[in-house]
Q: What sequence folds into this?
């Protein structure tokens, strides 16, 4: 017997629907104070439809999108519960929170905070293919330079060789 969308669900039903163990749901309740199931006599949990939508969104962000718990907490804090709920309703992930959760900064560096229109325009601007290719070639050149240093070769010769390879690749 299937329940309607408005029906309350037990922790077992939620765990089965989301394909996560029950102890994970209890853990999420501790990490995300926005999840507040009703508790009846004996401590039995009943999840409301709003809780289900939020849990679907959290599950999608954690498992499908690869966010950490801290990352999802940040999205909840900055963009609110409704944004995360949209992920549960949108399995294709077209409601991506790119603006709220930028890619992590490289180790040892912290990303500067942007405010106002600068943040929204930077989040929506996608680099061109040529820019991406240039960055990749620069990264490859630096990695090959590092490899040359590790192999005991002078850094300049490794860099020149890489630059030549990069120019050849750019022509292709």
A:
């Amino acid at each position: 017997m299937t329940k309607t969308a408005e029906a309350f669900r037990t922790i077992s039903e939620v765990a089965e629907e989301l394909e996560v163990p029950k102890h994970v749901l209890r853990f999420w309740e501790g990490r995300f104070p926005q999840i507040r199931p009703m508790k009846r006599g004996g401590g039995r949990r009943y999840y409301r439809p709003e809780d289900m939508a939020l849990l679907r969104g959290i599950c999608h962000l954690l498992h499908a999108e690869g966010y950490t718990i801290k990352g999802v907490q940040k999205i909840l804090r900055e963009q609110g519960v409704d944004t995360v709920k949209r992920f549960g309703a949108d399995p294709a992930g077209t409601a991506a929170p790119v603006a709220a959760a930028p890619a992590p900064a490289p180790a040892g560096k912290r990303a500067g905070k942007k405010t106002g229109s600068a943040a929204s325009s930077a989040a929506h601007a996608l680099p061109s293919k040529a820019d991406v290719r240039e960055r990749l070639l620069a990264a490859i050149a630096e990695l090959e330079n590092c490899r040359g240093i590790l192999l005991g070769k002078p850094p300049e010769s490794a860099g020149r060789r890489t630059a030549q390879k990069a120019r050849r690749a750019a022509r292709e």
In short: The chain has two domains: 9-104, 129-171. DSSP finds eight helices and three strands in the chain.
